[in-house]
Amino acid sequence: MNPETQKVLADTLLAIAQRVQRMDAKIDGLVEAMERAEKATDAAALEAVTANHGPAVARSLQNNRQALRELASKPVDEFAGYMPGAEHLPD
Prior knowledge:
By secondary structure, the chain is mainly α. It has helices at 3-53, 55-72. The longest helix has 51 residues, at 3-53.
């Protein structure tokens, strides 16, 4: 490969790497914004449930949501015995 072709290739690869880094930073920012929005939504929903149904119902709802989040964070392999065919699901 001649030096001119190598330079063009190196410049192209550098430009691609820089673009990927910028996209990665944007994705990180979007994920953080989504997490903040989810927390705000959760807080507002909890406040509404408390106002409309009382603190006991709100605590129960909060406990159920936490339990679901914990289940969702587990690898699919843990459920393979309970869900036939689960071994084919992506992690």
